[in-house]
Amino acid sequence: MSTQPATTTASPDDAPATDAPATDGHAGPTDAERVTTQTLRALKTAGTPIAMLTAYDYTSARLLDRAGVDVLLVGDSASNVMAGHETTLPMTLDHMIYHAQCVVRGTGRALVVVDLPFGSFQGNTDEALASAIRVMKETGAHAVKMEGGEAVAGAAQRIVEAGIPVMGHLGLTPQSIYEFGTWQVRAEDEAEADQLRRDAERLEEAGCFALVLEKIPAALGKEVSETLSIPVIGIGAGDGCDGQVLVSHDLLGLSTDFNPRFVRRYARLDERVVEAAERYVEDVRGRAFPSEEESY
Ligand code: KIV
User: Fold this and answer.
1) How do residues 191-239 score in pLDDT, each as one tens digit?
2) How many angstroms separate the alpha carbon of residue 263 from the centre of ligand 1?
3) Which domain covers residue 179, as residue numbers?
4) Is 116 touching ligand 1 by the criterion CB < 6 Å?
5) Is residue 1 part of a domain?
6) Separation between Cα atoms, residue 136 and residue 238, nearest integer Å
7) Residue 44 in 3-state DSSP?
8) Please, are residues 269 and 255 in contact by the beta-carbon 8 Å criterion?
9) In a domain, 11, yes or no
10) Strands, DSSP E only, in the chain?
11) Are 230 and 204 in contact (CB under 8 A)?
């Protein structure tokens, strides 16, 4: 007769290995010092590049946090890589809050920044503030990010005045893709470059703690990084920025149908995943899985 309580299905050999959640009930690392907006400012001052990646779920966030990534962005690129949409526009505030809750549970060190999705902040500053407050209250994240320049600077300022750190985002801002009509490099002509310079300064004045620059000429990325006192994080904005960000699915080679020049693939996990699943299918069909040791 079994001596195990009826409700217990786990036994010692079922125990998760080294990457298991800590037994004190805290899911993430417990001894790391949390990166803050001040840390990022100090890194800029010291000339130490800031490493930022996107994350959308608990398990990935845990691994990326363990790797020492400074900032984890719960990007609305979740719309593309998690939900399979063509653009980021369908993402809702509820979607972002769900992803952010998962990511926050997986991090102990990284600063967690959450994208305000399309339609959650452009209407007026009350709406923007209400959206940012929901993100902070319901997720435990540390900051929000907003796409746009002078047009959203008032909203950014209102959110900052409420005590919520805001990261700006200029250049090829995906929420405006239908206005741009193309995924080409932005701010190549002087008029658009000048507008970007003005937008960047306005966002700094509004109190943003950092700025993302996406797909613009490297020279402009460097110039803006040198002009602003807040950290500037580039994605396709050259090596003169204070830090870099990539979509983690691109870096890991999980999504391989998006191939802009700025993506560097550090792994081809797509091949590893398909290969592992193919071996599993073969084993199941050939009755090679489960073995006697894997059975009860
Ligand atoms: O949503 C996102 O992933 C982003 C990064 C590309 C900066 O905004």
Assistant:
1) 999 999 999 999 999 999 999 999 999 999 999 999 999 999 999 999 9
2) 13
3) 25-268
4) no
5) no
6) 31
7) helix
8) no
9) no
10) 50-54, 71-74, 111-115, 143-147, 166-171, 210-214, 232-235, 243-246
11) yes
CA of 260 to the centre of ligand 1 (A): 14
Q: How many domains does the chain have?
A: 1
Residue 169 lies in a domain: yes
Contact indicator for 72, 109 with CB cutoff of 8 Å = no
Task: State whether residue 144 is helix, strand or coil.
Answer: strand
Nearest-angstrom CA–CA distance, 66 and 60:
10
CA of 46 to the centre of ligand 1 (A): 25
Cβ–ligand 1 contact at 236 (below 6 Å): no
Q: How far apart are CA 290 and CA 202, in angstroms?
A: 61
Q: What percent of the chain has pLDDT over 90?
A: 88
CATH number for the domain harbouring residue 55: 3.20.20.60
Return the structure tokens found at 50. Answer: 């800031």
Residue 32 located in a structural domain: yes
Give the integer Cα–Cα distance in Å for 94 and 229: 33
The predicted-structure confidence for 233-254, as pLDDT tens digits, reads as follows: 999 999 999 999 999 999 999 9
Candidate from 212, 246, 250 with most ligand 1 atoms within 8 A of CB, to mutate: 212
